[in-house]
Amino acid sequence: MRVPLNDLRLQYLSIREEIDAALQAVFESSAFSGGPFVEGFEKNFSRFCECEQAVAVGNGTEALWLALLAFGVGPGDEVLTVPNTFIATAEAISFTGAVPRFVDVDDVGYTMDPRLIEGALSKKTKAIIPVHLYGQAADMDPIMEIARSRGLVVIEDASQAHGADYKGRPAGSIGDAGCFSFYPGKNLGACGEGGAVTTNRPEVADRIRLLRDHGQRSKYDHCIVGFNARMDGVQGAVLDVKLKHLRKWNDRRRVIAHRYTELLGQTDAVVAPREAGYGDHVYHIYAVQVENRDAVMDALRALDIHCGVHYPVPIHRQQAYRNGNHAKRHLPVAEAAAARSLSLPIFPEMQDAQVDYAASQLNEVVQKLSG
Ligand SMILES: *Cc1c(COP(=O)(O)O)cnc(C)c1O
Question: Within 13 Å of residue 104, how many CA atoms lie on the same side as its CB?
Answer without folding.
Answer: 16
